[in-house]
Amino acid sequence: MQRRAAAAYIAFFLVIAAGSYAFIATADAPAITISGDDVREIEAGDTVTVDDRTYTVAEVKAEQQEGGDHGGGGGLKYTIRFEWTNDSARYTESWAANSTIEFENQTRRVLVENGTDRFELRWEPTAQFRPAWSEGVLYIDSEPEQGGRQDVAVTSYIANSSNESVQPVRFSESDSFERAGNRTTIASVSNTSVVLEWTAPRTNSFSTTNNQNLSLNEQPYVVHFKNNDTVLLGEGQAAREQLRDSIRMNDRFHDRINGVWGVTIGSGSTLVLLIALAFLPRKE
């Protein structure tokens, strides 16, 4: 009787375990994807134009690492990098008062007229003039190619020189000049520094990963990796919501599969226990 009852229970749990395992083996997870007229496929090297700004897909890559991702599988981390160029980006540079800077292939010292918006770039002697400071005055050898040292204050040397290249260059706030191919403006002059500004092209770059929202020229987009080399780019809030719903469905599927695995494992454990109990020796 004991074994007949155990056999019935064993058959019951065997059916449950087999059925739940068959369901797991045959069930297909809903794909995480987006589709529609506002979705396009992009790869490395493609361009995306949003209003008056053009983005280049600089890089699409999949790197193997621990863990997984929605739709990634195999522990892959997906990354897409965009680049765009701002043709009139603002640049600034600060020159500290009394510091030396490079100006038109010469080393010059920044000397600000205290309390004014004016400054000058004074010629700075090179090593061949053997410059030396004494009591706060900079002296140079005015005839470095002659024997002996002919000491003269650098200010006197400049004042008495007919060489145009050693004459001071003077500027005031708002003045501008050509520098490295750009029109550069004196933005501000203070007792401690001079600030320059100019505009020039600047390449901007940003990256994002799989199934992430992003903004292109302040417009909403979303990315989903179709495979290691191809990315689906969805435009607008509708594409974002579609991907979000797709991820939710995939999550619910895996939650249910995990529940069915619990049934399978529980039924299998019960089977083993029943078989073991069925063959215990009976007390007479």
Chain-wise SSE layout:
Elements: H1 2-26, E1 39-42, E2 47-50, E3 53-64, E4 76-96, E5 100-103, E6 106-112, E7 118-123, E8 132-134, E9 137-141, E10 151-153, H2 154-160, E11 169-172, E12 176-179, E13 182-189, E14 193-209, E15 212-216, E16 219-225, E17 231-235, H3 237-278
Antiparallel strand pairs: 1-17, 2-3, 3-4, 4-14, 5-6, 6-7, 7-11, 8-9, 9-10, 12-13, 13-14, 15-16, 16-17
Helix pairs in contact: 1-3
Provide structural commentary.
- With 284 residues, the chain is α+β, with helices and mostly antiparallel strands.
- It contains three helices and 17 strands.
- It has helices spanning 2-26, 154-160, 237-278; strands at residues 39-42, 47-50, 53-64, 76-96, 100-103, 106-112, 118-123, 132-134, 137-141, 151-153, 169-172, 176-179, 182-189, 193-209, 212-216, 219-225, 231-235.
- The chain has a six-stranded antiparallel sheet, with no helix packed on it. It has a four-stranded antiparallel sheet with strand order 1-17-16-15. The chain has a four-stranded antiparallel sheet with strand order 5-6-7-11, with no helix packed on it.
- Strand 2 (47-50) and strand 3 (53-64) form a beta hairpin.
- The two termini are 14 Å apart.
Shape: elongated
Tally of extended strands? 17
Radius of gyration: 38 Å
Distance between the termini: 14 Å
Provide the structure class.
alpha+beta
Low-confidence parts: 68-73
The average pLDDT value, as a whole number, equals 83
Task: Summarize the biggest pleated sheet.
Answer: 6 strands, antiparallel
Please state roughly what percent of the residues sit in beta strands, choosing from under 5%, 5-15%, 15-25%, 25-35%, 35-45% or over 45%: 35-45%
How do the SSEs run, as a string of H and E?
HEEEEEEEEEEHEEEEEEEH
Strand order of the largest sheet: 2-3-4-14-13-12
Q: In percent, how helical is the residue content?
A: 25-40%
Number of helices: 3
